[in-house]
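This part of the workshop introduces the protein records we will be handling. To make this concrete, we reproduce a full record directly below:
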Amino acid sequence: MLRSVLFSILFIFVFVLTSVNLTGQSSIVNDYLTEDIKVFPNPTTDYFQINNGVNVKKVIIYNMFGKEIRVANNYTNTLHDVTDLKSGMYIVKMLDDRNKVVKSIKLQKSSGGA
């Protein structure tokens, strides 16, 4: 248990150091202006899309323990289905056609209902 907690903390620390901008501040990475790339709706219950993500070719979803949950290709107007994921916080890493990180964001998955 302690080992998995330490691993999770280490993963998050390394992930934040090596990834791009989880805070939404603008930055330029791999010649892309990342402030223009948005994930919506966020929070979400069923799906999300990437706005202005023409350079985003692949999406990887991680849970907060660093476990890779899903890998999907991204095209214009792709709906990324997350209905099967449990409610909680996830990391969405977006990569270009060279598998370089374009942007990473936190995605809140909420349960559906009225």
Helices lie at 2-18. Confidence is low (pLDDT under 50) at residues 17-27.
